[in-house]
Specification:
The chain is α/β, with parallel strands linked by helices. The protein is built from 8 helices and 8 strands. Strands 3-4-7-2-8 form a 5-stranded parallel sheet, covered by helices on one side. The protein has a 3-stranded mixed sheet with strand order 1-6-5, with no helix packed on it. Helix 1 (21-31) packs across helix 2. The relative contact order is 0.26.
Length: 215
């Protein structure tokens, strides 16, 4: 039996008119020349939960680039609709802590073929079985989008340029490091959501994903 309703939590934030300069500066740092695509990506996460999106991979061998900050920021925006998990949780048969989430993220994870293949398989699934302890498995709609960070830049080689399921961004060290950037970005969330709701998607759909995201 299929449960057609994914377990969605109401957002903690309401949009508010205003500026969000720190957030937009951070987005420019993470997405560089693909800044508009980055805004599209977050906007689609916010507005169109059923849209299939590529697995977003932020990689850098350097520390303090903003990779982990990006995941924490998504968690602040989407709250209970975002899970930050580790590899052991991902491979555990009991998956209720992440399988119903809109965003499933992994921070500073080592990438190996077994993990790579499981992520790849889930990236286009529209159903998933929920396994809870002492309960019979049941099926629900799956809207999960995967975001991961890693210091393993070899992922750039592992993911073929012909495989549109992955969007790989190599993140540089910022020129100016702001100690309180995450706090400032969290304060700007209501204004950022207002900005997204007034913004037009930059590019038209070209594939069964929204775009062919590649560097």
């Amino acid at each position: 039996m299929t449960n057609t309703n994914n377990h969605y939590f109401e957002m903690d934030h309401e949009q508010k008119e205003g500026d969000c300069p720190v957030t937009l500066e951070f987005m420019r740092h993470i997405f560089g020349e693909q800044y508009e695509l980055g805004l599209d990506y977050v906007q689609l996460l916010y507005q169109r939960s059923q849209q299939i999106l590529p697995v977003l991979c932020l990689v850098s061998i350097e520390n303090s680039t903003g990779k982990s900050t990006f995941i924490k920021w998504l968690k602040a925006i989407f709250s209970n609709n975002c899970a930050i998990i580790n590899k052991a949780e991902f491979f555990n048969i009991f998956n209720e802590n992440w399988a119903t989430k809109r965003i499933i993220s992994f921070d500073e994870i080592s990438i190996e073929r077994k993990f790579f293949e499981k992520i790849k398989a889930f990236s286009t699934e529209d159903k998933i079985f929920i396994h809870k302890r002492f309960c019979r498995p049941f099926e629900v709609d799956f809207f999960g989008k995967f975001v991961l960070t890693s210091s393993n830049e070899d992922f750039l080689i592992s993911a073929s340029k012909k495989d549109i399921r992955y969007w790989v961004r190599k993140i540089p060290v910022p020129v100016d490091h702001k100690m309180n950037m995450l706090d400032e970005m969290i304060e700007e969330i209501p204004c950022f959501l207002h900005f997204l709701n007034r913004r037009e998607i930059a590019l038209q759909r070209r594939t069964h994903f929204i775009y062919n995201y590649r560097n």
